[in-house]
Structures are given as C-alpha cells and as structure tokens.
Amino acid sequence: MKTRKGWVAGVLVLCATALAVPAIVVAGPGSSATTTFGNLKAGSPFPPAEHDSSFNGEDNIIPRTVVISAGGSVTFDIDGFHQAAVYRAGTTPDDITVPAFPPESNIFVNDADGRVFLGPVGAPSTTSAGTFATPGKYLMICNVTPHFAFANMYGWVIVK
Fold this sequence. Notes:
The structure is a single chain. This protein has 160 residues and is α/β, with parallel strands linked by helices. It has helices spanning 2-20, 55-58, 145-149, and strands at 24-26, 32-37, 61-62, 65-68, 72-78, 84-89, 115-118, 125-132, 136-142, 154-159. The strands form 2 sheets. Strands 1-4-10-9-6-7 form a 6-stranded mixed sheet. It has a single domain, classed as Sandwich (Immunoglobulin-like), CATH 2.60.40. It is globular and about 40 Å long.
C-alpha cells in the first residue's frame, strides 16, 4: 500500500508541476526569448508509427507567445520543414494573404506586406529575428502555407 501511495503522490506532484508551467515565456528587461517551430518528437514511439504526426503534434509553435522587453530579441529554433516570419505590431492572422492551395508554385505564404523578419527554411536551424525596439504585439507565423492556413501555426511576440 505504501508503494501505491507514493506512486499516486508522485503523479499528483507531476500533474501540479505541469499545470504550473506557463504557456507564455516571460523575459526581463533587455532580455531574449526562444520559441520552437515544429515538434518532430511528438507522439508515441509505439505502433502505430503515425501516432501523432498530425498538425497538432508536429506543426506548432512552442511556446505560442513570448514576452520580452523593448530592446530584447527572439530566437527561433526550427524543428522540421518550417520558416519563421514576423509581422509588424498590430498585424493579425486575418491580415495575411494566403495563396491558393494545393501549391503548384506557392508552398510559402510569402505575404511581404508588413513583414519585418523572414528566417531560413528547414531544420535544424536557429536564427534570431534581431531586436524589437518598439512595444507592441507582433504576429509570428510559419511561412509554409498549409502550416499557417490549416494548422493555425502562428503565435505572438509581445514587446513591453
């Protein structure tokens, strides 16, 4: 009975810890944040092999929102076939022009209107969007059309 109580207590502590992990990463003055585009390790290693290679599992941004102070920077870790793009403060997902799909020549969104950063394509790579001097809420998206248009692969850089 003692072993079972210990196991239950361990599970409760693990669950409480998971609930305490924020969906937003907060960085201090002049600091930076890192966000990851893609999660190729999603899912189970057990059959079926395609357990969670879904949009929810692999094509997401972790965390979806980062908060930094003016003068701070954001680094993008790319895991899989993704491309980070950042748009000026005030841009929303509805403001982005999405090309027709399926792609014959437009696998990328490539809406340059208001875009302030476009990173390299593919993984593994790490790149910085530079510094964010002006406070605001900046839209970051995966520039791969199906990831943005169908998987809602976007998030926010909030500059305080």
